[in-house]
Amino acid sequence: MSVPTLSLRTFAAGDAAARARFSDDLMRGLQDYGFIILADHGVPEDLLGAAYARSAEVFALPEAVKRRYAAGMRGYTPFGTEHAKDSTLPDLKEFWQIGRDAAPGLPAEDFPPNVWPAEAPAFQATFSALFDALDRTGRILLSALAPKLDLPSDYFDDKVSAGTSILRVLHYPPVPGDAPAGAVRSAAHEDINFITLLVAAKGAGLQLLDRDGTWLPVETEPRNLIVDSGDMLQRLTNGVIPSTTHRVVNPVGPNVSRYSMPFFMHPASDVSLECLPSCRGDGARWPPITAGEFLAERLREIGLAK
Ligand SMILES: O=C(O)CCC(=O)C(=O)O
Ligand SMILES: [Fe+2]
């Protein structure tokens, strides 16, 4: 048994039967593993290549330069800042976050200006393009999932087009000799958002906790995406689509950097995560909450907000 691979082309260019099959496979993959691997996803391979190159360039800048670009939920977050919700040890990672640009009609407080490094002029164009491409792909995936929840296929569109989604450009440096005992690159956690589209890392380390309690490596070629369901989708679906615990372990071979780029797809802050009628079953497992309230609570729990 391993995480299933799905081709998005069979959905995007397929007939009704092929689309229904894709929806079934996506739903089953998320229910059985919380993860699928997505091939033929429409994000150009040369854009992924450029993103890896620009990412390595920026993280190679001196620490003091990078720290000038620390601005909360945008720009740089230094090594050792974030920790998993249930961990006291810091994750061994640094990252750069890119959000949706502010636009008329969107609440300004949710869309602070992006922060771009002057030392790497191509970074902005590359990551703006990657944000848009992953946003498009994520919307297609949600439109494929909607019918499985008895929803119209465009149900998620307006919720995520104004969403507070984040593209997180991640660098796990070689594990330092003085890292706290027990600290790992990314401690066991569940993602907060609806779905995550992860540009597959070039190095091993990602593992999911399967339904039997076994850690299973999640690996694919760098040109594919890895998709997982987060807590907001779990909440909306009353657990019908669970979020899956995962982690990034420290290297066992050469102690080298690892780069990855998760795109956390969030709804707009005012979207209710109250359980969908089709998922009520014997009753709602969680009280209603808005996406904005849920996110604020989790950001406090992981050390990214006060
Ligand atoms: O780096 C990875 O492969 C996964 C990162 C991750 O799970 C996260 O940032 O939420
Ligand atoms: Fe994650």
Brief summary of the model shown:
It is an enzyme of class 1 (oxidoreductase). This protein has 306 residues and is an alpha+beta fold. It is 28% helix and 19% strand.
Question: How would you describe the overall organization of this protein?
Answer:
The protein has 306 residues and is of the alpha+beta class. The chain has one domain (5-301): Jelly Rolls, CATH 2.60.120. The chain has helices at 8-12, 16-32, 45-59, 63-67, 123-145, 157-161, 231-236, 291-301; strands spanning 5-7, 35-39, 70-71, 74-77, 94-99, 166-172, 186-189, 195-199, 206-209, 215-217, 225-229, 246-248, 258-265. The chain has a nine-stranded mixed β-sheet. Helix 3 crosses helix 5 (123-145). The N and C termini lie far apart (42 Å). The mean pLDDT is 95. The structure holds 2-oxoglutaric acid and fe (ii) ion. 2-oxoglutaric acid (AKG) is lined by residues 168, 170, 186, 191, 198, 201, 206, 246, 248, 260, 262.
